[in-house]
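Bit of a strange request maybe. I'm writing a small parser for structure token strings and I need a real example to test against, not something I typed by hand. Could someone generate the tokens for this chain?
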Amino acid sequence: MSTVVTRAPAIRVRGMRKSFGELDVLRGVDLEVAAGTIHALLGSNGAGKTTLVRILATLVPADGGTASVQGHDVAAAPGRVRESISLTGQFTAVDEVLTGRENLVLVARLRHVADPDAVAEDMLARFSLTDAGGRRAGEYSGGMRRRLDIAMSLVGDPPVIFLDEPTTGLDPQGRAEVWRTVQQLADGGTTVLLTTQYLEEAEQLADRISILHQGRIIQTGTLAELKRLMPSATVEYVEKQPTLEEVFLALVGSTGGTDDAARPATAEGNLR
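Reply from user aminoacidic:
Good idea to test on real output. This should exercise your parser:
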């Protein structure tokens, strides 16, 4: 998790409401996200997570309530908000015909960033994609495409990034790659609002967690604070067995490489 620094909230939502026809999706959402932190927004399908993110990103209007990002009102100053944010959705915006480098150069030119080529090289290095920069993005693994997608969203150094279920469809290695990337963002001072259905993702990354249920935030706190809401646990001594994900990553290597020296000789040796 990132080091929490006390500053004015980067994101502030008050009484946010949104309906689609007869369906009330958001029913008075209140939310604050501290600057330079990772804030996880948990909720089941249909809870309203993506709708809230789309409102904050100025993609759809709210029916009521107020919201600000970096001090800019989402409804009154959408242009200033868009200058301050980047959004990475559930599906990558990568052009698979272009190389990784060409994707980054294209985005840098669209955002009128000085020296697009230098920006592309810097992003490739920052996200450990330099060696793959000359390959078509369609040849990348899922985790690499997602890292490239996040790199593209960070061209221009927006202070706030919305990650809407960024690890959907990724294998354990790809999720681990994205987790490292998200942690690096917060370590560098970027504010991250992360929506996810994976509880382990929130446990691993989030400084604070909000639970969105039936259109409302029903609880917010650190992981430790949320755990204290439950009854005291009964202490039992049991033998801890490795999870299937731990076994998988130990056998294939956390980076998915093929270097035999980086893998255990046999599954039996690893599982003892």
